[in-house]
């Protein structure tokens, strides 16, 4: 396998087991054990009989990589957790057709030896005859029976002591163990620390009355499901409201190019939506949200979420993104300060919906309320733009007609 010239990146390679036919191509079954390698972009010479090793897991994503030939992988040359440079052989491949020599059948085990004859035991002596008459029962004594408390009764024998040298385990013993961080967790930790070291992060807060959007969902969720075969949630409202606010405050959608010391303004809106998976948090990207309606957004979120849970996200699903939304409310979070996802300049944090008393028109009413938090890079975004942006989201979620009227 020859690497092509390209950007060097960290790759996580799942161990393939054996090549199998899948839709006319040769694919590899994958095990969960992983090998971590550092290589350039793959470039293999095409061949009519070449197949594709189905998927390699690369940190939070997966990518298709072609196999040099159809066959069986006999040995992996990279140890678990090891790092190699581009061009290093990764595995040994035995081409199809050269079947492995079948193992010789094991010799039949010798027949078991005949058991030695055992001398017949002498017949037991005849049992004594059972008496036909019972002895007379002694008369019951008229004297009272002496009684003792249970505690005064001693056991017949003392318990057997434990052998010396085997100390009994002490109650409440404490221990600890270590588990090596997987590559995904290491990468998450690295990126979060990079964000702290690079951005001047500041967080502003607001609260959103969810009464109208909750009522809209209750009224239209069944027709929405019937027409689009999708459940109508709250995330689509926040994604659409964020796109609306990003167009109103383009600096929040911009980013600083530290190399050229320039501000890069994007005229498109690609929103990263955080998805929790058993392997960790991933942030696939919903692209061109400014051109989507609620149904388009719900479908994109559903499809990306399914790919994330099945560990089938590709590089293009994760690449880019101009703004991120994280919903800690699904876990019951009431308040929090999200961390920016570099190289973006801001992130919106959603939280749990809680019924709280609020003042409405001079009266106290119980409304479903949500706290929202916007963390932004203060090097680029001033407080005025950040607060205006968050209030724009608040207005669009509380009354979706704002989106239709472009207010």
TrEMBL record:
Location of the Lipoyl-binding domain: 62-93
InterPro entries given in the database record: 2-oxoacid_dehydrogenase, 2-oxoacid_DH_actylTfrase, Biotin_lipoyl, CAT-like_dom_sf, Single_hybrid_motif, SucB
Gene Ontology terms, MF aspect: dihydrolipoyllysine-residue succinyltransferase activity
Pathway membership, UniProt: Amino-acid degradation; L-lysine degradation via saccharopine pathway; glutaryl-CoA from L-lysine: step 6/6
EC category name: transferase
Cofactor(s) annotated in UniProt: (R)-lipoate
UniProt keyword list: Acyltransferase, Lipoyl, Mitochondrion, Transferase, Transit peptide, Tricarboxylic acid cycle
Stretches with biased composition (Pro residues): 122-141
Gene Ontology CC annotations of this record: mitochondrial matrix; oxoglutarate dehydrogenase complex
Subcellular location: Mitochondrion matrix
Keyword Hydrolase found: no
Annotated stretches, region: Disordered: 101-179
Function: Dihydrolipoamide succinyltransferase (E2) component of the 2-oxoglutarate dehydrogenase complex. The 2-oxoglutarate dehydrogenase complex catalyzes the overall conversion of 2-oxoglutarate to succinyl-CoA and CO(2). The 2-oxoglutarate dehydrogenase complex is mainly active in the mitochondrion. A fraction of the 2-oxoglutarate dehydrogenase complex also localizes in the nucleus and is required for lysine succinylation of histones: associates with KAT2A on chromatin and provides succinyl-CoA to histone succinyltransferase KAT2A.
Family affiliation: Belongs to the 2-oxoacid dehydrogenase family.
Protein name: Dihydrolipoyllysine-residue succinyltransferase component of 2-oxoglutarate dehydrogenase complex, mitochondrial
Organism: Anas zonorhyncha
């Amino acid at each position: 396998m020859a690497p092509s010239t390209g950007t060097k990146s960290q790759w996580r390679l799942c161990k393939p087991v054996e090549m199998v036919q899948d839709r006319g191509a040769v694919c590899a079954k994958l095990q969960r054990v992983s090998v971590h390698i550092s290589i350039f972009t793959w470039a293999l010479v095409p061949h009519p009989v070449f197949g594709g090793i189905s998927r390699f897991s690369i940190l939070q994503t997966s990518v298709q990589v072609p196999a040099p030939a159809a066959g069986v992988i006999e040995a992996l040359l990279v140890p678990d957790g090891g790092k190699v440079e581009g061009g290093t052989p990764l595995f040994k491949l035995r081409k199809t057709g050269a079947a492995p020599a079948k193992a010789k059948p094991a010799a039949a085990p010798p027949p078991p030896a005949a058991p030695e004859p055992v001398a017949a035991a002498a017949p037991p002596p005849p049992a004594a005859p059972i008496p036909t008459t019972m002895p007379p029962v002694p008369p019951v004594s008229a004297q009272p029976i002496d009684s003792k408390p249970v505690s005064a009764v001693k056991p017949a024998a003392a318990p057997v002591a434990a052998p010396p040298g085997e100390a009994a385990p002490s109650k409440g013993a404490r221990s600890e163990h270590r588990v090596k961080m997987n590559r995904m967790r290491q990468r998450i930790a690295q990126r979060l620390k990079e964000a702290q070291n690079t951005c001047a992060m500041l967080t502003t807060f607001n609260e959103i009355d969810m009464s109208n959007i909750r009522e809209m969902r209750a009224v239209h969720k069944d027709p929405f499901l019937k027409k689009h075969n999708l459940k109508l949630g709250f995330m689509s409202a926040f994604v659409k409201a964020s796109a609306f606010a990003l167009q109103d405050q383009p600096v929040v959608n911009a980013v600083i190019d530290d190399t050229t010391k320039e501000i890069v303004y994007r005229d498109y809106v690609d929103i990263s939506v955080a998805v929790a998976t058993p392997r960790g948090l991933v942030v696939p990207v919903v692209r061109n949200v400014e051109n989507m309606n609620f149904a388009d957004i719900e479908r994109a979120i559903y499809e990306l979420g399914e790919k994330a849970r099945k560990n089938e996200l590709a590089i293009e699903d994760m690449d880019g993104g101009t703004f991120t939304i994280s919903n800690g409310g699904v876990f019951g979070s009431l308040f929090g300060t999200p961390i920016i996802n570099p190289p973006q300049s801001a992130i919106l944090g959603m939280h749990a919906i809680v019924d709280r008393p609020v003042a409405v028109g001079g009266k106290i009413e119980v409304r479903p309320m949500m706290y929202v938090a916007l963390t932004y890079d203060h090097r680029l975004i001033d407080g005025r733009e950040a607060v205006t942006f968050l209030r724009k989201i608040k207005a669009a979620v509380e009354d979706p007609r704002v989106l239709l009227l472009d207010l």
